[in-house]
Write a structure and sequence with these properties.
The chain has 220 residues and is mainly alpha-helical. Helices cover 65% and strands 0% of the residues. Helix 2 crosses helix 3. It is elongated.
Length: 220
């Protein structure tokens, strides 16, 4: 297709030209999209482990691209970290949504609660690195976080309707417990068995039956 043909706007009023994304951005080439995804995945691992001490240079090296390529996709370190955080929230939300039709809503809720606590150390490290880089948790990151919170709320409601979780608890206090146990596990670097025992206590308080606390036990 000629350059002039590619630059010709669609004649339909209000439509988006075929060669542009909403907002007037040109769609990325396949190799550019691949680079972006690889950078994000590597950055998730690098900053999830190294936090604010990790560098974009290390991300570029491990992703197999030049530092200019990193900054072409993400103009600042803060922009990269926000995108990583958004991706992590989105993935967790999708995992929660995949459990909406679980045959055992109680187990689905408690298992996902445990998963979020186990995942917290990396997320907290990325969030703190974002703040250190001059970013914040507003905008896309806040929206992605809210999406995860709503998905957890849906899992809670499903578990309550199934009779697995007390019906006198609501999402605000449950989410406060989730945040508290997540930060405790991450910042105190709890050993796995200690984390499971901590969650068993929390789950006994949420469950209609103490036997539900078995959901906190590690899977074989």
């Amino acid at each position: 297709m000629s350059e002039s043909a590619m630059s010709t706007p669609d004649s339909t009023p209000g439509s988006t030209p075929a060669n542009r994304e909403p907002g007037g951005r040109r769609p990325q080439r396949a190799d550019a999209r691949t680079n972006r995804e690889r950078i994000l995945n590597v950055a998730d691992e690098v900053f999830g482990k190294g936090g604010e001490s990790a560098s974009t240079e290390e991300v570029a090296r491990l992703a197999g691209v030049g530092i200019a390529t990193v900054f072409r996709h993400f103009p600042t370190k803060a922009a990269l970290l926000e995108a990583v955080l958004v991706q992590r929230f989105d993935r967790l939300r999708e995992q929660a949504e995949a459990l909406f039709d679980a045959t055992d809503p109680g187990t689905a809720f408690f298992d996902f609660f445990s998963h979020l606590v186990a995942d917290a150390a990396g997320k907290i490290a990325i969030a703190e690195a974002l703040l250190d880089a001059g970013g914040d948790h507003s905008g896309d990151a806040a929206q992605a976080s809210d999406g995860l919170r709503r998905a957890v709320g849906a899992l809670l409601q499903h578990a309550q309707r199934a009779g697995a979780v007390r019906d006198d608890v609501e999402l605000p206090e449950v989410y406060a417990l989730l945040v508290a146990t997540s930060r405790a596990s991450a910042l105190a670097r709890l050993e796995e068995d200690v984390r499971h025992r901590m969650l068993a206590i929390v789950f006994d308080g949420l469950a209609t039956s103490p036997t539900r606390s078995k959901a906190a036990a590690p899977r074989s």
